[in-house]
Amino acid sequence: MLKWVEKLWYGHSGWSRLLLPFAWVYQGVVACRRALLTRFWHQRFPVPVIVVGNLTQGGVGKTPLVIALVQRFQARGLRVGVVSRGYGAQLNAFPHAVLVGDLPHKVGDEPLLIAQKTHAPVVIARNRVSAVRHLITHYDSQVIISDDGLQHYRMGRAIEIVVIDGLRGLGNQRCLPAGPLRESALRLNEVDYLVVNGGAWPGAYRMDFIPGALTSLLSGMPVDVHTLTMPVAAVTGTGHPQRFFQTLTALNVSYQPYVFPDHYPFTVSDFKQIEPCVVMTEKDAVKCAVFAASSMYFLPIEAKIDQKFWDALWTHPAIKALA
User: Fold this and answer.
1) Among 242, 87, 234, which Cα is nearest to 165's?
2) Among candidates 1, 18, 4, 2, which has minimal Cα distance to 174?
3) Cβ atoms 281, 243 nearer than 8 A
4) Which of 38, 59, 4, 26 minimizes the C-alpha distance to 190?
5) How far is 238 from 257, CA to CA, in rounded Å?
6) pLDDT confidence of 226, banded at 50, 70, 90?
7) How far apart are CA 6 and CA 259, in angstroms?
8) How far apart are CA 109 and CA 88, in angstroms?
């Protein structure tokens, strides 16, 4: 996200007031679109669909939560599938079932990461309804999780989970383009569960990212972080890079930050003019695996969610019916 946009949406800039008329128009269009889609084109499914979404532009930590959900359902012996838009996917035919060996620029970094971490069927399509149907028809999925798609109102859903960034919250709580919101903040009152990524939020279950062992991108083996030659190049192309940098600081890693746009398609040339030792996020690592070097490492994370969230989810009528 551009720095001036970050300041406009999350700082104390008064310039966003000039954009309020456009925000009101945007909010009205979104409301009308939602009403039309849910009334005339809403698609229902024979299995529960769980949407993991957010109200704000940019990364809030949805994908680690999706992975945690998939793994929990798998542990219960359920056939779970994942649908994703596949941002940036360079394919000619959809829906597409992601394979763990697919190239990230073909299927998108987040769908590939989910497939590699869970080995669950992950289907990408711009039309999420077709992706859901593909999972039901070809994989007999008993429960389907949508990575993002809160505003994809053609797709019916049994459960809505909204993730809130505990560090940035909802910014100035204005809709695009005056603020970061895709919909009015009142939408939070309608969802089933709120999850706050770090920090606190009224009525939300807390989620924290627990870093795993630093891992060699080339060998896949864990490495002691204290054996690295510092400072390292901390490279990230995520929606909220500051969270990654804070994790490195907490691990006492001395680094030089390098920030790229979210979903950035890394090439080997991006690493030629930086420190020889590179640490990146796991999401970025899937895009760099094809040119991995012995000096490249990634830091995996695991989403740890308040146990009360799981207790509430398992008692939801749509999930109890699966038992």
Assistant:
1) 242
2) 18
3) no
4) 38
5) 13
6) confident
7) 14
8) 9
Residue with tokens 């080339």: 218
Cα-based angle 37, 38, 41 (whole degrees, multiple of 5):
55
Region of 299 please: left (phi>0), alpha (psi -120 to 50) or beta: beta
Structural element, H or E, at residue 174? none
Residue 241: cis peptide before it, omega within 30 degrees of 0 = no
Q: Which DSSP category does 91 fall into?
A: -
Radius of gyration of the chain (CA): 20
110-148 pLDDT per residue, tens:
999 999 999 999 999 999 999 999 999 999 999 999 999
What type of residue sits at position 136?
I
Range list of β-strands (E), 115-170: 122-124, 143-147, 159-165
Q: How many residues does the chain have?
A: 323
pTM listed for this prediction: 0.94
Q: What is the mean pLDDT of the chain?
A: 94
**Dihedral sign (CA 274, 278, 280, 285):** positive
Q: What is the mean pLDDT of the segment spanning 38-47?
A: 95
Residues 6+ apart with CB under 8 A from 73: 80, 143, 145
Distance CA 282, CA 280 (A): 7
Residue 2 has pLDDT above 80, yes or no: no
Look up tokens 């990461």; give the residue. Answer: 113
Distance, CA of 295 to CA of 298 (rounded, Å):
10
d(CA 97, CA 1): 30
d(CA 90, CA 112): 13
**Contacting residues for 292 by C-beta, under 8 A, at least 6 apart:** 217, 218
Closest CA to 52 of 140, 136, 164, 139: 164
Query: Which 3 state secondary structure label does DSSP give 87?
Result: coil
Give the confidence band of 89 by pLDDT, cuts at 50, 70, 90: confident
